Amino acid sequence: MSSNFKKSISRRQFLTLAGTGLAAAGTASLVPGGSSFLIKSSKADKAKYNLRFGASVLNRTNEVHLRSGVYHFVDLVHELTDGELHIQVIDNAQACAEPTCGDRVANGILDIGGSSPQNLGSVFPYSIALDWPMLWNSREEYINFLFSPASNALYRDVMERRYGIVPLYGSGEMRSVMMGRPYRDADDVRTPEQLRGAKIRITNSEMIAGFAQSLSMEPIPLAWTELLEGLRSGVVDATETWPGAATGFGMQNVLSQDVAVNFSPGLELIFISARSFNRLPDHIKEALLEASYQAMIYGYEGVEEAQNAVVGNGPQPGAGNAYEEAGVRLVTLTSEEREGFKRAAGVEHNEDTYQRVRRNMARIAGTDVYDELREYQQSVAGQPINPQRWWA
Question: pTM for the whole thing?
């Protein structure tokens, strides 16, 4: 390791290690579908440990919009370990799609994965524990939670204990309601009443389905790869996603309005198999966590830059952004208008809708997850980003 990298005592260093060897070291980098990705670089040949990272559908092109920080994260790991650990990034859906990345990490086919928590929900149901509709007012609030030591007992430890994965970091925005072409000439959507009866594509999330139903919309689960054609053909009238994801995959050309309801986190979560993580020596574990910490800062700042320069949903959008070129209107709600959506679709105003998922989350975590998160949210409301090393 470089001499300027300061190691600190990690709570994870007290875990019982599965063994002194690393299963990933020296293993063949095989991924599903019969494809073989051989590590050929000189850096990998010299590395003592090798891990395989299925970065889902991310690639260098859409990363300009999404700013997940995955490539920066990998570079940081290589730097902080002086090349002792090498991570092979398998991106562009070559190793896994979002719904399958979690399964392949859990089964040992991959060591590291990336996916939105909503898409992870079919494999790791507790991954959606942060997604309560209308809980968070801004991305700063939920990112502060991921930076906070409070995220250990309420999220990270539960995911590790229950599913054998260690959440590393997350980067993203807030989810909007994106209207399709039929709303191009319609008035700006500013009230829940304007959405009644609209067919909305949702991710595989019980919470988001509840959100759509609370607004009297018709939720239609549709694969991300089918969404573009679904919007173009009118199979769905709208979709829920976050702006960088929409423009990163060319959705802006079939959209008309970005209604910034900001109802739930929209992010990429980067996670590692607990088995792979725990077999690493302590100084390498610490480097992975430090790289995650720095990557989350990098991702947060990168999203802000992309909102203005690339996507067009920032406070100071630059010329030629994706929204401007495609004619997508950004509908920024007033605090009163957003409060109207909260009254219509928030958890506290729809107890029956969210009762089952709330009980399931409580059963998994051993506490009322929504109550705990609401208390945390109230403690950080309106505060700027406060990066903390959550594991120290």
Answer: 0.89
